[in-house]
Amino acid sequence: MAPRRQVVKIEQVTVLLGGFPALARCDFDVFEAEIVLIAGSNGSGKTTLLKLCAGICGFREGSVRVFGVDMKGSRADVRKFVGYVGHATLLYNDLTVRENLKFIASCLDIPFERAFEYASEFGLSGKMLDQLVGTLSAGQRKRVSLAAAFSRECELLLLDEPHASLDHEGKEFLEQVSIRFRELGRSVVVASHEFERMESIADRRYQMDSGRALKL
User: Which of 56, 131, 149, 166 is at a distance of 20 to 30 A from 138, taking alpha carbons?
Assistant: First the structure.
């Protein structure tokens, strides 16, 4: 069997936020076609680690390579391969679900049909597509945001607390779509307090502790 391609390689990285070490000599890696779970309490460095992988966070020392690109150079070079979903849904409240998905698809130059396919996988179909996003519950908004992110079918998808606000059905949709993403040869990294929800489908697990990623 051919060795799997390494997607992310982080070695001895320190990130300071306001003088505080959000990451401290942190090591972390991700390979293609795997689901990686990151657990940890608030302030342990989960979000900073994901932003580092996404190329939207600088670092003080150490080495970061994403898809072989040295992130001390142009971080923009890897962003077309990487998707990131943070705590904010970044949707337009005065547009319907359908209009939001079409707008996002046009901005990302992906087929509308693909966006609606993923929306359906997250239980968004029928009349719900024509509801204004501003009238949706927090969990429904999260489903729209996740559907849009997965529809990019990027090589690496980073999800920061994706279970937040989702109901039981929404969490099951997330797990099913993550598994299918892995089957397509793509990688999903999930930072979550709900460790037990993703543990059964994760290939590898890390625990964040004082800015370091400890393998479990």
Answer: 56
> 187 lies in which domain range?
6-215
CA distances from 213 to 17, 32, 51, 143, 179 (A): 17, 19, 14, 28, 23
Q: Please count the structural domains in the chain.
A: 1
Domain CATH for 67: 3.40.50.300
pLDDT digits (tens, 9 = 90+) for 45-91: 999 999 999 999 989 899 999 999 999 887 787 888 999 999 888 89
The 10s digit of each residue's pLDDT in 102-156 is 999 999 899 999 999 999 999 999 999 999 999 999 999 999 999 999 999 999 9
Residue 37, C-beta contacts closer than 8 angstroms, at least 6 positions apart: 190, 192, 195, 198, 199, 202, 204, 205, 206
